[in-house]
């Protein structure tokens, strides 16, 4: 059996996020969907898996149902497949942030970097005046990254602020391009950097996953696997599972 996996997020005001938790969990459980969804006042983030019919039904409810009342009208959504159910249970968790940076001034609903679609990414990162940043944690970078990307060598995303303060300068680094797994970390990171005075900040729309889905391998600048936070461990071009990377994680 093949399962459909949906990675999703949206920054949107959800002042009632606490009240949404239990009915959202019940909805997923009723559909046989498993995975993790994070809810915060700033939005929703997570990855879930189920049958194709169940995932379609869940996405329809998120976008059009009474639970969110039409607020998820700009949901960033990416689909892939798994040969086995990649999650053991369904979790809906309440958080202060749907991705933790720890800077209340970084608000993607107010200011955010320039989105670059996968088809235009190669041209951007080949520009000599662009510094390319991988915003992910060190073990993710070790598994795979774009050619020429700067590894900030961070253990958690919240440490990205320290990397920027110590290693980057708005006067010297005038054009910054960044990427992450699905795009959510870059939304926060680009908002933060613009607030710190960096003039041009770009990020890969849909993240690495969308790039691997849309850009042919023959044209790709990506090397290695893209770590995903489930039992598949990593995906490659065409969002195909990479079993060979499971041993790398076991060695950590």
Description:
- The protein is an alpha/beta fold and 252 residues long.
- It folds into two domains: 3-94, Alpha-Beta Plaits; 114-249, Oxidized Rhodanese, domain 1 (3-Layer(aba) Sandwich), CATH 3.40.250.
- 30% of the residues lie in helices and 25% in strands.
- It has helices at residues 17-31, 52-64, 118-125, 138-143, 160-167, 184-195, 207-214, 246-250, and strands at residues 3-11, 34-40, 43-50, 76-82, 90-94, 114-116, 130-134, 144-146, 175-179, 200-204, 222-224, 226-227, 234-235.
- The strands form four sheets. It has a five-stranded mixed beta sheet.
- The chain starts with a strand and ends with a helix.
- GO terms for molecular function: oxidoreductase activity, acting on paired donors, with incorporation or reduction of molecular oxygen; transferase activity.
- Belongs to the TrhO family.
- This is tRNA uridine(34) hydroxylase.
- Catalyzes oxygen-dependent 5-hydroxyuridine (ho5U) modification at position 34 in tRNAs.
State the helical fraction: 25-40%
Q: Give the rounded overall mean pLDDT.
A: 96
Query: Which range does the strand content fall in?
Result: 25-35%
Sheet having the most strands = 5 strands, mixed
SS field, number of helical segments: 8
Order of helices and strands: EHEEHEEEHEHEHEHEHEEEH
CATH topology category name of the largest domain: Oxidized Rhodanese, domain 1
Please tell me how large the radius of gyration is. 18 Å
Q: What is the SS-derived class?
A: alpha/beta
Number of strands: 13
CATH architecture of the largest domain: 3-Layer(aba) Sandwich
Q: List unreliable stretches of 5+ residues.
A: none
Task: Name the overall outline.
Answer: globular
Q: What is the H level of CATH, i.e. the homologous superfamily of the largest domain?
A: Rhodanese-like domain
Total domain units: 2
Distance between the termini: 30 Å
Q: Report the CATH C-level class of the largest domain.
A: Alpha Beta
Q: Determine the oligomeric state from the structure.
A: single chain
The spatial strand order of the largest sheet comes to: 4-1-3-2-5
GO molecular function: oxidoreductase activity, acting on paired donors, with incorporation or reduction of molecular oxygen; transferase activity
Enzyme class: oxidoreductase
Keywords: Oxidoreductase, Transferase, tRNA processing
GO biological process, one term: tRNA modification
């Amino acid at each position: 059996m093949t399962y459909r996996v949906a990675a999703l997020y949206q920054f949107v005001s959800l002042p009632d996020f606490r009240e949404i938790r239990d009915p959202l969990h019940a909805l997923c459980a009723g559909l046989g969907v498993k995975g993790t969804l994070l809810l915060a006042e700033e939005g929703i983030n997570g990855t879930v898996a189920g049958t194709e019919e169940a995932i379609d039904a869940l996405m329809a409810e998120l976008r059009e149902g009474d639970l969110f009342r039409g607020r998820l009208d700009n949901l960033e959504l990416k689909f892939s497949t798994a040969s086995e159910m990649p999650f053991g249970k369904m979790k809906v968790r309440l958080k202060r942030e749907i991705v933790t940076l720890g800077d209340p001034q970084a608000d993607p609903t107010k200011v955010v970097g320039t989105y670059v679609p996968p088809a235009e990414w190669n041209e951007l990162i080949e520009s000599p005046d662009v510094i390319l940043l991988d915003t992910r944690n060190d073990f993710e970078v070790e598994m795979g990254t774009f050619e020429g990307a700067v590894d900030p060598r961070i253990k958690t995303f919240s440490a990205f602020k320290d990397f920027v303060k110590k290693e980057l300068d708005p006067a010297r680094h005038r054009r910054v391009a960044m990427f992450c797994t699905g795009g959510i970390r870059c939304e926060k990171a680009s908002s933060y950097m613009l607030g710190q005075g960096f003039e041009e900040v770009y990020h890969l729309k849909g993240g690495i996953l969308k790039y691997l889905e849309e850009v042919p391998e023959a044209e790709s600048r990506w090397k290695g696997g893209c770590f995903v936070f489930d039992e598949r461990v990593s995906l490659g071009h065409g969002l195909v599972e990479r079993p060979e990377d499971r041993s790398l994680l076991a060695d950590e």
